[in-house]
Amino acid sequence: MKLDPNWISGFVDGEGTFYIGINPNKTMKTGFQILPEFRIVQHKRDIQLLYSLKKYFKSGVVRVNHGDRYELRIRNIDFLNKIIVPFFEKYPLHTQKKNDFLKFKKVLKIIINKEHLTKDGIEKIYKISSKMNRKDKIITKKHLDKDKVRSLEKSKA
Amino acid sequence: MKLDPNWISGFVDGEGTFYIGINPNKTMKTGFQILPEFRIVQHKRDIQLLYSLKKYFKSGVVRVNHGDRYELRIRNIDFLNKIIVPFFEKYPLHTQKKNDFLKFKKVLKIIINKEHLTKDGIEKIYKISSKMNRKDKIITKKHLDKDKVRSLEKSKA
Asked: Is residue A87 within 8 angstroms of chain B, CB to CB?
């Protein structure tokens, strides 16, 4: 199916997620790995649409999200930076999700500047991302459960 | 805010609902009133967007949906028929919600032909609408709870 870019922007305003994962990771000097992710989750009945979006963005992977739900997930920093960010700058979001996108963009910039490899950078990212995805829908903070937050807060002390 | 019609179509693919209410109503000859409704529900933080959509469609009312959630609701048959239907014919939906729209359109035609004032028409509408809104999300069937379905099925016997 041929998708109009404005249609995609509207659909993402409803169904997309800009997410910053902060994963404890002992192999990193800072103790944390930063994992930005753009995803669109749909019931499997609309899996073809996810493949069309993947084709449109020329990036990402379609995979199981949970149960009957599938997602198009884009994690590649280069794709996020060179395809996803310019796309939503050209075809702007209109809901409060726009703020998530702006924060997401900010974190990407921190990563590109390699600041995420320092404790200061991690703290900055933690501060930005803690104000994201404040939907009344329940968002599974897969990568950042309470224990991890506590360990992150301890590392800041 | 200025909304692109393709953006609206994408947003509705994610967030809109085409709904057929079948309400027991003793004042109707058939015992049922048919209430088609197009609605978009958002958290109150995006209420301005609902007003922008109302302005775009030049129809509907913005009201509380539930708790912190608001909706743009369009029930006027004329508006649904002359504004909403042509809009989604011009700017097509791409998810399976398209099937809901096509069924919705079918029911509107039945209403315009006044067939909904006959028992046959009500049965036809019941059959069509029972295959709508099959999202894995929980849809509140406000107007059609189990008792009402039972009473409708009894009326068909």
From this structure: no
Hey, is the C-beta of B11 within 8 angstroms of any chain A C-beta? yes
Q: Which CATH number fits domain A5-137: 3.40.640.10, 3.40.190.10, 3.40.50.1820, 3.10.28.10?
A: 3.10.28.10
ipTM given for this complex: 0.85
| pLDDT, tens digit (0-9, with 9 covering 90-100), for A9-47 | 999 999 999 999 999 999 999 999 999 999 999 999 999
Q: Give the residue from A1, A3, A4, A7 with the most B CB atoms within 10 Å of its CB, the best one to mutate.
A: A7
Backbone angles phi, psi at A4, to 5 degrees: -80, 135
Q: Which of A9, A43, A52 minimises the CB distance to B7?
A: A9
Q: What is the pLDDT of residues B94-111, one digit of tens each?
A: 999 999 999 999 999 999
**Partner B contacted by A150 (CB < 8 A):** no
